[in-house]
Amino acid sequence: MLDSKKLAQEILMLIQAKGFEETQANKDFIESLSTAIVTHIQTNALVETKGSPSAQVGTIK
């Protein structure tokens, strides 16, 4: 499952490692960007499935 809050936390941690400060503006920007990325993937991803109705495997295209 895609989680925009977890993605935002991971991005914030990575940019802090590069020297960026944890400001409210940065946090708001990252949260907005993470939500947009997750929503875009959930809305536009094509998934190809293989297998039987009871046992399927999917791949995002």
What are the main properties of this structure?
alpha+beta, 2 helices, two-stranded antiparallel sheet, 61 residues
What is shown here, in short?
With 61 residues, the protein is α+β, with helices and mostly antiparallel strands. 57% of the residues lie in helices and 20% in strands.
Q: What's the β-strand tally? A: 2
What's the number of domains? 1
> How helical, in percent, are the residues?
55-70%
The largest sheet is:
2 strands, antiparallel
Order of helices and strands: HHEE
Mean pLDDT: 90
DSSP helix count?
Answer: 2
Describe the structure.
The chain contains 2 helices and 2 strands. With 61 residues, it is of the alpha+beta class. Strands 1-2 form a two-stranded antiparallel sheet. The radius of gyration is 16 Å and the shape is elongated.
Structural topology:
Elements: H1 4-17, H2 24-44, E1 47-52, E2 55-60
Antiparallel strand pairs: 1-2
Helix pairs in contact: 1-2
